[in-house]
């Protein structure tokens, strides 16, 4: 074997690989820079529009362009002792009310509610007598899959829950609408009134219920003001006002 020739070929191969990787890095940095510029420009546009409409941006607004896709889901049956409601949720009222254990509400609910560990407490929606939780999917909330726990005098009175079984799939994520653009769209359409305050902006999933059992859950930005909740589709930019 001609080792000198083989060595030369190997060196050339490494050089070609380095050039390719350098180009990939340069391209990635260029895309990041472009995204950063778009975000900065959109931020400036939003702030100017909010000033003109006297809309106060109190919420922490996520930056960047999310990679998102939709979910296919079916409502989960809760079993014996739970009453099925028309919207697909289930309710259980406890007689007598269940005392909260010394280890806390979390441990008590874990013993009472199947799928409890797939939910996360929403502090912004909860009060002293009402705890609200949302089912999570890869760290994003399913805004329709809500669990509400009613509490009185340290005892659990009732639980209302909607749980989804998510269909597994390999759907690739698409670059979605960012939160800044979603807010601009709502303001430009006049859906957020002059003088309103935007209090919360969060990415999650929400879909219309055409069938009590099966649902398609698009990714949405849930945007809340003092008086209203809006959902902006993070794939299409279309919006709806929560009833």
UniProtKB/TrEMBL annotation:
InterPro entries assigned: YycI-like (IPR018604)
UniProt-listed Pfam families: YycI
Name of this protein: Regulatory protein YycH-like domain-containing protein
Regulatory protein YycH-like domain segment(s): 34-234
Annotated coiled-coil segments of the chain: 32-59
Origin species: Marinithermofilum abyssi
Any single GO CC term annotated in Swiss-Prot or TrEMBL for this entry: membrane
UniProt keyword Cytoplasm present: no
Gene3D superfamilies per UniProt: YycH protein, domain 3-like
Alphabetized UniProt keyword annotations: Coiled coil
């Amino acid at each position: 074997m001609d080792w000198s020739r083989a060595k030369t070929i190997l060196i050339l191969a490494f050089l070609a690989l380095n050039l390719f990787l350098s180009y990939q890095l340069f391209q990635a940095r260029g895309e990041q820079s472009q995204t950063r510029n778009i975000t900065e420009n959109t931020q400036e546009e939003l702030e100017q529009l909010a000033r003109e409409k006297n809309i106060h941006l109190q919420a922490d607004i996520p930056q960047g362009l999310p990679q998102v896709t939709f979910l296919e889901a079916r409502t989960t049956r809760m079993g014996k002792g739970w009453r099925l409601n028309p919207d697909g949720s289930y309710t259980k009222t406890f007689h007598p009310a269940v005392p909260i254990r010394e280890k806390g509400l979390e441990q008590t609910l874990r013993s009472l509610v199947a799928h409890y560990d797939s939910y996360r407490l929403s502090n912004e929606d909860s009060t002293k007598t009402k705890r609200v939780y949302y089912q999570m999917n890869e760290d994003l909330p399913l805004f329709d899959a809500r669990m509400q726990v009613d509490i009185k005098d340290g005892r659990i009175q009732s639980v209302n829950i909607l749980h989804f079984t998510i269909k597994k799939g390999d759907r690739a994520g698409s670059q979605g609408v960012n939160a800044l653009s979603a807010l601009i769209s709502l303001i430009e359409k006049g859906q957020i009134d002059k003088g309103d305050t935007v209090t919360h902006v969060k990415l999650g999933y929400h879909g219309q219920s055409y069938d009590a059992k099966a649902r398609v859950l698009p990714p949405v930005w849930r945007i809340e003001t003092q008086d209203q909740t809006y959902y902006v589709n993070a794939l299409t930019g279309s919006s709806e006002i929560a009833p």
